[in-house]
Specification:
The protein is mainly α. The protein has 2 domains: about 220 residues, Growth Hormone, Chain: A (Up-down Bundle); about 200 residues, Up-down Bundle (Growth Hormone, Chain: A), CATH 1.20.1250.20. It is built from 17 helices and no strands. α2 crosses α12, α12 packs across α17 and α13 packs antiparallel against α14.
Amino acid sequence: MDKHITPATPSSARRKSWPWAWVPSLYFAEGLPYVIVITLSVVMYKQLGLGNAEVAYYTGWFYLPWLIKPLWSPFVDLLKTKRWWIVAMQLLMGAGMAGIAFTLPMAHYLQYTLAIFWLLAFSSATHDVAADGFYMMALDEGDQSFFVGIRSTFYRLATLAGQGGMLIIVDWLIGRTGNDAQQAWVYAFFMVAALFVAVGIYHGFQLPRPHSDAPRQFATRHLLKEFAHTFVTFFQKEGALPALLFMLLFRFPEAQLGKMSIPFLMDPLAEGGLGLTLKQIGVIQGTLGPIGLTLGGILGGICISRGGLKRWLWPMVWAISLPDIVYVYLSYALPSNALIISSCLFIEQFGYGFGFTAYMLFLIYYARGTHETAHYAIATAFMAAGMMLPGMMAGALQEWMGYRGFFIWIMGCCAVTFAVSAFLKIEEGFGKK
């Protein structure tokens, strides 16, 4: 692994000794655009009058850049520096946020904003590749271990800010604009655009310049040959077919549920929803939900570190599946009590966080060996495909079945999660300390 090497100058020494000055802000900037593209776009289009089928189908396409990320990620490693890519993508995302704000009042806002959201998704996926690579180059092994929890924390804080803070701000802006939801979203995206431009400028000055972060010389013929070999060896691994089915289908219920959970919270009681305000959704989705997800993930990591992935696989399969039943309860009971709703969503997210630990660790398990980094990127692309395709059909299914029938369907889909987990072969003790 590359060590952090810098010239012996006061400026370089200062930057090396203060990763706190850029690691938190870098991973906050990595998490926020993802939640804006994947989650807030659903809320915005829903509030602007699109039906559930349209919302799920259109926003489902936003996963595509993360799905095809392995196709261009090698070029981020070869062209320019990762520092350059980070700053460039942050400024480009700031411009994209402003572009959404400018085009929202236009007659054909849907076509324009969909195109810009896709550009944001592409920029965010590219930023992910550059930021993760830069983290390993700019920090030595000791600092990498120390800051791994810090980077995860600030990524989670970005989720809180996006799913919670942004919705609360939009709800406040709607009140200030005379219930003009469109204008409120315009102001909100201008605010986020300014934030990203400021972050890009800040990182332009603050990010260190490790010697290892430099463009590499390469021959096109050798690059293409190595690129092809990397993909071929991924599919030649032992147990490839069960592993690929697991990557694609383990989250089959959650991929559909994730697209319809917020519309369910937003829709009025007459349409089978809970009729919550954006402020209420922001508080629930931006605080209790991520807290449950984080606690579940922490507990999952502790359990696997003590017993290994093979021992904890089935408890985690149950954990990610059974809590989905809270949506069946909510769709039939239609409670108005915020504590009941929050508790149900906390339980679902806690179970998801606990169970998702097994999924992510299996991706690491399968990617081991030669081309480990590239194979992990390919595995995450299959993960994105598993979220994209079921999510795109979720809205049409919900409109056909209604919320109650749809959530019962989700519980039935949990059988797919159990089926693809049954054929995995995992070494005894993997993941155990």
